[in-house]
Amino acid sequence: MVVDDDENILSAFEDFLRKENCQMVAETHVEEAFARFAEQRIDLLITDIRVRLHSGITLLLQVRAAYPYVPIIVITGHPDIITEKDVIKYGADFYFLKPLELDKLRFALKKCLRMTTK
């Protein structure tokens, strides 16, 4: 699942993930994203820190509490809001700044998906 309120980012993730042979569920709101976890199996969460009126950190904390084994990647274009150290402390597995470096994202994606198949 990718959660971002920017349709261009979601489209870019869809292209990237398709090339990596992954299916993507896209959400633009934190509430709908969290509700989706109860509806279907989600193997990985990629969330922006700023999502509409809410925080991706709120989603991170909710998912980590309810689904502790789901890997989480946090992305942001605003590194002044929260540090990588804080995001990792809250339970994220990876933290990336926009614009994303695709090789690093690819590495994280593969590592996270290996975590869900164990």
How would you describe the overall organization of this protein?
The protein has 118 residues and is an alpha/beta fold. The protein has a single domain, classed as Response regulator (Rossmann fold). It is 47% helix and 18% strand. It is built from 5 helices and 7 strands, in the order βαβαβββαβαβα. The protein has helices at residues 7-19, 30-39, 56-66, 84-89, 102-116, and strands spanning 2-3, 26-27, 45-48, 50-51, 54-55, 72-76, 94-97. Strands 2-1-3-6-7 form a 5-stranded parallel sheet, with helices on both faces. Strand 6, helix 4 and strand 7 form a beta-alpha-beta unit. Helix 2 runs parallel beside helix 3. It is globular, with a radius of gyration of 13 Å. 27% of the residues are buried. The mean pLDDT is 93.
